[in-house]
């Protein structure tokens, strides 16, 4: 097998490692491409292409994350990871860990870790790498990596989100919720929302703040019911879609351009959190991006016209 063939075979794994460390589709793709350039330029072939490339993409991702920390601290409003529509890496034996680790809630929890803790946690807990492979990837001894793993696991376990054990139940509830939303059914929405549900938006200061900081079933239900009618009257559509391994949706304008995405945290038979990504810089990989401000202005006019 040529180096190019080995790399293409490992690309899904490399992207999945980088995305979990970085929370950015674009930065993860750049890290993977840089890994290929280093692999192609290496004068000697490694004993294990998987170990070598996983280490390279991890080191690159750690460096990128360190520089990104300052930008994220100065970010306008809440910062969410870029929505991921499908994880390219599949491993039936670790499917549960893979799905949980890519959820919005888990990625936000990973943001609390140091770059080294985050990388060690991802390699060890998500992808099952041994400490002998992790140590050279992060430039620490195996003993130090074990300590990093313990600290990271403690932080993650303390705040780990709880989702419904049966994902099919979660999907069915999300389907009922989206049906109620499309129909503007206020009572139907309210009964599917947790009492302390939160609707939070990431606009990055580049789009309207849909639902930033709306809390409570009654408030969130009213906000959503008021939103959907004008949006659909101007040709907007709401497409159910798994996002970051969770039930979610993609909002599109009349021309099919992406306005925003939703992810829904489902636990205890209720919607616990609705996270929407509106920042256009985070949506380009989903499809052509709409001007969310223009869409909202048109929807507001439609609402006033309807009386």
TrEMBL record:
Pfam families recorded: Sigma70_r2 (PF04542), Sigma70_r4_2 (PF08281), SnoaL_2 (PF12680)
Domain RNA polymerase sigma factor 70 region 4 type: 105-156
GO molecular function: DNA binding; sigma factor activity
SnoaL-like domain ranges (all copies): 176-269
GO process terms (BP): DNA-templated transcription initiation
Keywords: Sigma factor, Transcription, Transcription regulation
RNA polymerase sigma-70 region domain boundaries: 7-69
InterPro entries on file: ECF_Sigma-70_Domain, NTF2-like_dom_sf, RNA_pol_sigma-70_dom, RNA_pol_sigma-70_ECF, RNA_pol_sigma70_r2, RNA_pol_sigma70_r4_t2, RNA_pol_sigma_r2, RNA_pol_sigma_r3/r4-like
Family per similarity comment: Belongs to the sigma-70 factor family. ECF subfamily.
Subunit structure, interactors included: Interacts transiently with the RNA polymerase catalytic core formed by RpoA, RpoB, RpoC and RpoZ (2 alpha, 1 beta, 1 beta' and 1 omega subunit) to form the RNA polymerase holoenzyme that can initiate transcription.
NCBIfam families linked: PRK09636.1, sigma70-ECF, SigX4
Protein name: RNA polymerase sigma-70 factor
